[in-house]
């Protein structure tokens, strides 16, 4: 019993990137609608109502993007009304809605990815692709809190020495420039010390392995296989489906492969929701038995 976020990071990344890849490169309205609805649904399941402000922000962004296009673009033959001699067309309005759904849907899934993928998982993925890149990323992530702590120490020391004057803007700028210079020197010295330490410990001599707490399991392989199959159906449908907004709305009637591709994309987008909901229900059931 594992939630979607507890699956192997490679499997999770493959599924989310497949979802966002389809919606970003195929602007067919059915794909954009499915991506938007499933992204909002899974974000709600994952975060609950804690991030209600994020839904409000995405809703406002959707409205702005949808309304901006007909005010900027005046293409299309179906004129709804005229503002300052500029026609507002139905085609431009629908194109704006479709583009807004594509952008907001992708943002939802990227927000989900950033919440699920911790720094440890990202280092695991980069370690599989490139151990050296993983090492650089881990050192950079470790350096950020060290740099912040050192900046606070230097700032406190400068204030204790009386080098800052209150209500003096010019003096504050000089003080911050002095702190930045000190931090730059400290960072360079720290980098040299780290490089000498790595050389002394034999870094770069021979092949080295890396430790990871993640292991590819049977369920992860099944999830990857299901994702690859569904993505293949989506790609085949995306090649056969066409939808044109300008100069007038023109759409081909989806054939069997198109319908199968849309259904496959809906299943692909709902996989995280289904897995997460199943894990939650099982956990609540087990708790009720205690």
Protein traits:
4% strand; extended; two-stranded antiparallel sheet; 290 residues; 4 strands
Descriptive overview:
This protein has 290 residues and is mainly alpha-helical. Helices cover 74% and strands 4% of the residues. The chain has helices at residues 9-25, 29-47, 52-72, 90-116, 119-129, 131-160, 169-200, 218-240, 256-289, and strands at 79-83, 86-89, 243-244, 250-251. Helix 2 packs parallel to helix 4 (90-116) and helix 3 runs antiparallel to helix 4 (90-116). The longest helix has 34 residues, at 256-289.
Radius of gyration: 26 Å
Q: Globular, elongated, flat, extended or rod-shaped: what is the shape?
A: extended
Tally of separate helices:
9
For the report, how would you describe the main beta sheet?
2 strands, antiparallel
Arithmetic mean pLDDT: 83
Strand content: under 5%
Helicity level: over 70%
Question: Helix and strand string, N-terminal first?
Answer: HHHEEHHHHHEEH
- Give start-end ranges of low-pLDDT stretches: none
Structural class: mainly alpha
| End-to-end C-alpha gap | 17 Å
**What is the β-strand count?**
4
Strand order of the largest sheet: 1-2
Task: Write a short abstract of this structure.
The protein has 9 helices and 4 strands; from the N terminus they run H-H-H-E-E-H-H-H-H-H-E-E-H. With 290 residues, it is mainly alpha-helical.
List the helices and strands and how they pair.
Layout: H1 9-25, H2 29-47, H3 52-72, E1 79-83, E2 86-89, H4 90-116, H5 119-129, H6 131-160, H7 169-200, H8 218-240, E3 243-244, E4 250-251, H9 256-289
Antiparallel strand pairs: 1-2, 3-4
Helix pairs in contact: 1-4, 1-8, 2-4, 2-9, 3-4, 5-6, 6-7, 8-9
């Amino acid at each position: 019993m594992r939630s979607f976020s507890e699956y192997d990071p490679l499997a999770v990344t493959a599924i989310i990137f497949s979802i966002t890849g389809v919606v970003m490169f195929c602007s067919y309205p059915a794909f954009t609608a499915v991506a938007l609805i499933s992204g909002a649904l899974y974000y709600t399941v994952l975060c609950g109502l804690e991030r209600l402000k994020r839904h409000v922000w995405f809703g406002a962004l959707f409205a702005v993007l949808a309304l901006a296009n007909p005010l900027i673009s005046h293409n299309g033959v179906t004129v709804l009304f005229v503002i300052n001699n500029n026609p507002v067309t139905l085609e431009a309005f629908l194109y704006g809605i479709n583009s807004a759904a594509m952008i907001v849907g992708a943002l939802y899934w990227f927000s989900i990815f950033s919440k699920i993928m911790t720094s440890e998982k990202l280092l695991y993925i980069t370690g599989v692709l490139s151990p050296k890149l993983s090492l650089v990323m881990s050192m950079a992530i470790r350096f950020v809190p060290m740099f912040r702590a050192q900046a606070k120490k230097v700032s406190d020391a400068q204030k204790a020495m009386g080098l800052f004057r209150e209500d003096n803007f010019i003096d504050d700028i000089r003080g911050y420039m002095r702190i930045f210079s000190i931090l730059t020197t400290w960072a360079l010295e720290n980098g040299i010390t780290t490089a000498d330490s790595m050389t002394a410990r034999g870094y770069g001599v021979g092949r080295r392995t890396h430790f990871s707490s993640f292991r590819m399991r049977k369920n992860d392989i099944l999830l990857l296989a299901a994702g690859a199959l569904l993505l293949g159906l989506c790609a085949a449908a995306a090649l056969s489906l066409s939808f044109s907004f300008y100069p007038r709305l023109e759409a081909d009637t989806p054939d069997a492969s198109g319908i199968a591709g849309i259904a496959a994309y809906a299943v692909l987008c709902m996989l995280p929701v289904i897995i997460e909901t199943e894990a939650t229900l099982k956990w609540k059931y087990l708790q009720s038995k205690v």
